[in-house]
Amino acid sequence: MKLAAPSPALYIAVFLLITTVASIGASPPRLMRLPASSNKNYLTNEEHWFNQTLDHFSPYDHRQFRQRYYEYLDDFQTPNGPIFLKICGESACSGITNDYLAVLAKKFGAAVVSLEHRYYGKSTPFNSSTTENLRYLSSKQALFDLAAFRQYYQESLNLKLERSNIDNPWFVFGVSYSGALSAWFRLKFPHLTCGSLASSAVVEAVYNFTDFDKQIGESAGPECKSVLQEITRLVDQKLESNGKALKTLFSAAQLKNDGDFMYFLADAAVTAFQYGNPDKVCIPLIEAKKAGKDLVEAYATYVKEYYVKSLGVSVETYDQQHLKKTTLTGGSSDRLWWFQVCTEVAYFQVAPSNDSIRSSKVDTRYHLDLCKNVFGEGVFPDVNATNLYYGGKRIAGSKIIFTNGSQDPWRHASKQTSSPEMPSYIIKCHNCGHGTDMRGCPQSPLVPEGDAKNCSSPDAVNTVRKQIIEHIDLWLSQCQSSGACSM
After folding, report:
1. pLDDT score, position 384
2. Residue 300 φ/ψ, nearest 5 degrees
3. What is the pTM of this model?
4. Do you find a cis peptide bond into 79, omega within 30 degrees of 0?
5. Is 408 among the catalytic positions?
């Protein structure tokens, strides 16, 4: 175990030391796991730590673990400027990325703080990820982590500024799963934030997520969709006749399970649409079709050159034997996210009964068998309980902004219909994918400050960003005028 004893005085002292010298101023079902950014794409990657409660729901278990966070104070208008809490999601959090939030921080004079999700990266309570050790990994525990961190950081800031009972206005941001956490945090802890931005927020747990594949077909368009479907048929045939040679062609011979292999091939196509690069997959395949070339070989080239080589995706992360490993490594995020998939949210990206792009081998049984094989008997997602707890698309919160890219398949697990105090915006353009409002498009490689100029319709992105600014401005002012800044 890596459990730390509580030491409030120590971490307050560390905070004071740091801030004295600082200038105040989607994995298998992947969500937002883009390749690691270079240092120039970070506002900061200086690590800070505090002691977090392991189990927020037990009155008897007082164990703690060290949780990593980051702070960026260059634009902070001391002492009463807002604090923007950027939630990290289902992967290691290596710093505060220089996306559109940097623009918002400068505009509003905000401090930016970001907390790494429990178990991911360096914020791990245990030395191994056995199923037993993962029992404290859940969105519910993560939300309490955020609440505890917000209280700790505010008290630390007050101590530094030699004041008490003062609350800066807080606003919460997240993309994808962390977008869902952003919405859920506002829902469950409305007294701790003035509002939240839930970008591409997957707030509804979905058991059989057939709309995911359907959206890929719509985003691809008739011609590209037809080619992708033909490739799937050819691959299915070759898998039966000479699976070993086929997997070798894709440099994926290690994937002994045919379902793992077909999931890998489906994800490779999905990623192009999800992250705003549809032409990366469609143009070479359509050209190969017109030229009478071997479509399977053409797709293998795309997978190896773009998905694996350019994006840095590891074939190993699709291997169930790899997912069963409990030793903590740089690739542990895949096992951790699958645990959340297999216990809370599902998002099983299964093939629809007809007109599917992905192989019928990627079905419900494949996912349930994976959960059982990787984590043991009795592990399966209780999506009804998750949606009952949070509300799914019927979330009954307030002051939450929902945004989605028109080509992103994940938007069908998000709230896409506006309601009072919870506006929802769809950014429509040829390469508007996952988190377009915060990251711009295309998102790979990541463009600092989320520049929208690479979008096919930058005006569509900027229009939504204008709406975001108006809501943040209004809700922060309401928060201040109502006296919500006093604890």
Report:
1. 98
2. -60, -40
3. 0.92
4. yes
5. yes
176 an active-site residue? yes
434 noted as active-site residue: yes
Among the options 408, 412, 414, 437, which is catalytic?
Answer: 408
Q: What is the pLDDT of residues 87-106, one digit of tens each?
A: 999 999 999 999 999 999 99
Catalytic residue among 434, 437, 444, 471: 434
- CB of 15 within 8 A of CB of 49? no
Query: From the candidates 94, 156, 176, 356, which is the catalytic residue?
Result: 176
* Higher pLDDT among residues 483 and 362, named by residue: 362
**How does pLDDT run across 393-406, given as a tens digit for each residue?**
999 999 999 999 99
